[in-house]
Design a protein that fits this description.
- By secondary structure, the protein is mainly alpha-helical.
- It has seven helices and three strands, in the order E-H-E-E-H-H-H-H-H-H.
- Strands 1-2-3 form a three-stranded antiparallel beta sheet.
- A hairpin with a 2-residue loop joins strand 2 and strand 3.
- Helix 2 packs antiparallel against helix 3 and helix 3 packs across helix 6.
Length: 182
């Protein structure tokens, strides 16, 4: 992450309200990759849609601001993870991505790609943006698997020993002593 240049340029418009978001304004730069307010708004829309009708007007500004701020943080993290993945020589091939897309469409939409596209358009997103988001998820999964899961190692013997120790520590011995004073 030594090459990462991260600048949050203008988060203030996010805190004001949904109407003041400048769609082409730059919200953050992550190693010369730009995140615009329009990107944030598009990514946050599925979370915002139910909130706009259910949250009281007094709470709406802070709720929308929190959603935008969280979305920006998630997008910055995704860019940082993608950069680390690329720096380590990782690559998500088009073939792997298409297999994941086909698997998702088969499981969630009964092999109906048009239903997926219609739902994405209903959420204000495009198929290409969704595909890029899926690519980011694959990269994040690969990095988690590489960095975290590979470091979790416990032998079966150690596991059994820890379970046995836990069982003996939690035996059903009485923990409260009763006394009757008359």
């Amino acid at each position: 992450m030594r090459y990462v240049l991260l600048m949050i340029l203008m988060v203030v418009p996010l805190a004001v309200s949904a109407e003041t978001i400048f769609l082409n304004g730059v919200a953050a730069v992550v190693n010369m990759n730009y995140i615009t307010y329009g990107d944030i708004k598009a990514r946050a829309w599925p979370q915002l849609k139910p909130v706009l009708s259910s949250v009281k007007r007094a709470e709406l500004r802070t709720t929308v601001s929190n959603i935008y701020t969280d979305t920006l943080a998630q997008m910055v993290e995704a860019k940082l993870i993608a950069l680390a993945f690329k720096d380590e020589g990782g690559e998500v091939s088009a073939d792997i991505l298409e297999k994941k897309v086909a698997e998702f469409i088969r499981e969630k939409f009964s092999n109906d790609r048009l239903r997926l596209i219609a739902e994405l358009e209903n959420d204000g997103s495009s198929y290409e943006d969704w595909k890029e988001h899926l690519r980011e998820q694959l990269i994040t999964s690969a990095m988690v698997s590489k960095k975290i899961n590979s470091k979790i190692a416990i032998s079966p013997r150690l596991f059994r020993r820890n379970i046995s120790a836990a069982r003996t520590n939690t035996s059903r011995r009485p923990r409260i002593k009763y006394s009757s004073s008359r």
